[in-house]
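Reviewer 2 asked us to include a model.

Predict the structure of this chain.
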Amino acid sequence: MSLDFPKCVLICAALLAGTVNVALAEDVTYDQILNDPDNIDLNYQYAQQQAVKGDLEQASAALERILLLQPNYDNARLFYAIVLFRLDDMEGSKRELELLQDRPLSPSQQSEVRKYLAQAVSRSKTTRVFGYVTTGFRVDSNPDLTTESVVDLNGNQLGNNPQTDVAFVANAGVRMEHTIPGGAGNFIFIEAAGDLNEQFQVSEADYADGGAKLGATLFFGDLEVTANGFADVLSLEGQLYRASYGGNLQFSYAINPRLDVFVSGGLGYEDYYRVSEDSAGSARDGWLTRASTGFSYLTSETNKVVARVNGYFKDAAFESYSYDALELVLSDTWLLGRGQYIKGIVSYRWLDYRQANPIYSPFMAQQDELFKARLAYGAPVGTLLEFVNLESPEAIADINFQIGVNYLDQDSNIPNYIANSLSADVLLTKRFEY
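Predicted model (structure tokens):
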């Protein structure tokens, strides 16, 4: 299987479980282990080192040696349980975690035991269900992207007085996976997700969307293949704006434990309806082709970079609404320990319409550039309360708190679409797994 984000969590937990910082220490060689197999500190350092490198089998063997010599070494047993979890040995992971339930662990270690035990129990099932619910608020300096321009191409007056507003935001998703017999880790899945944005004053920016996917993921050694069909709808101000359906296919290949490369494509039909904010309606109907390629790279035990290039190619009923777009996306995630993280993401998109739209100009086809940036910090509520010496109830300790800031700048050769906005949001996310 490829190296994924949960493995980054494993690596972080491995480092936190001990006192040796592998990133700064010299590599421990296997010959050193052979020469001194009963050296607990050396074995622990070697286990951490191999986990960072993605060699979980060697990390597991080193931890087994430690626990044979010192069965009450709780840090090592927790580390071992997480390694077994990542090796998909759910029964072994459950066994080790259950041994830790009555041990005198720190609050953060107890939280790790509860979290991984619940996941191990769930993932050992043939059918698994998991999901999330997020709610929060966002304040935005220009939620409906009111233009900065005073007049349009024809000299007509444009409203250019952006209104700062607060919105209630929410999103939720649920996913069910069912293992395909054979032992390769293949599974089929069905998932559904939706978003809601309800402005307090600027109703033009209200929207809700939802969709569902049905597909399968298959593993062929280091190659992961996922195919799915999808359907979704989008409403603006309570009016159905767009319905779409189609399919996606993605290939992901693990070059080494730190580096994955991927390529994906999709094809969907978009069916538009007239609403108060857009009267084009069925003129926008047509097929949208998507293509993407990129990589994810674990630069260190606590940092992951993902870069991708996306292409969008729309063939609309009216050529004025057909376009080609290219998008560059770069994200970076830092794990800070105890469930904390910082995530940054930037994107830049070029969009060219293929034909002039007489609504704006009979001669000039629209060309847009869109830059977006986001920086967010997140942590479990339990961790944040520990910082102020408060104990959180178990029911809320694992709720994730996140605060983020966003910047958007849109440029266009059509003055109506020149706009920017600055926003900030506070979100709470509860995840579940059965």
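The chain has nine helices and 14 strands. The chain has a mean pLDDT of 88. We have added this to the supplementary material.
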